[in-house]
Fold this protein.
Amino acid sequence: MEPAGPTYDHANKEDQIRIRAVADHQFGKGCGVKAFPEGITVIRSKKTGKVKGIYHQRRLLATLRPADGYLALGPEGAIRVARALKPPKYRVVVIEDVAEFIKKGRNLFAKHVLSADPEIRAGEEVLVTDAADQVLATGRAMLTGREMKRFKIGLAVKVRKGTEPDFED
């Protein structure tokens, strides 16, 4: 017997309301509608029927983390969320020297942080940008926003995915 694979289908109204509500809760009111437009497609688990991935025009916007129900943004989703939020909300700005490495999916260390939203808490989903507010990557904050600025050693953001496609070592 083969393992059950995911199924793709258009998000129903209930799915859209839930996804947008999670985005509003996680990133702020109004973010859900701007980041997750009409016509999104979802991947469901065949076993449980729960939404796993959220796509728009075949581009990954986000996945729903099963552990806490929050969104883990993909590169396209991070760009949409960045457009919906005014800087510095949920942003970590990097120095120019490391921007190319971050785009390729490398982790961000505290010594390379130019600025960070002081309200970021460790464990939150963050947008890693350059000084021009171009999204370079998305990931999980390992430090608070204030610590990112003050510390000179340590991991600031565990990058999940950079915006540069198909990076290989």
